[in-house]
Design brief:
Order of helices and strands: EEEEEE
Structural class: mainly beta
Strand order of the largest sheet: 3-2-5-6
Number of strands: 6
Distance between the termini: 11 Å
Strand content: over 45%
Length: 71
């Protein structure tokens, strides 16, 4: 899967959580420039279902949902 992120410039931390609030994977941690980025999300080893992706950037936190439907 690919995640589209509008970088705001600065340090970014992106994590994938299950619906029980457990962190399942770290997707990205580092700097993103002020631009649109397409980041790969590795879903290997995760069961089908709904997940939440938390995107922490310098000016706030955003959450988006992701649904894995098949391997």
């Amino acid at each position: 899967a690919t995640l589209k992120v509008n970088g705001q410039g600065g340090t970014v931390k992106i994590e994938l959580y299950d619906m029980q609030g457990r962190m399942m994977k770290s997707v990205y941690e580092g700097n993103l420039t002020l631009a649109t980025h397409h980041l790969p999300v590795d879903l290997d080893g995760l069961e089908n279902g709904t997940y939440s992706i938390k995107i922490q950037q310098p000016n706030g936190i955003e959450a988006v949902q992701l649904v894995k439907m098949r391997d």
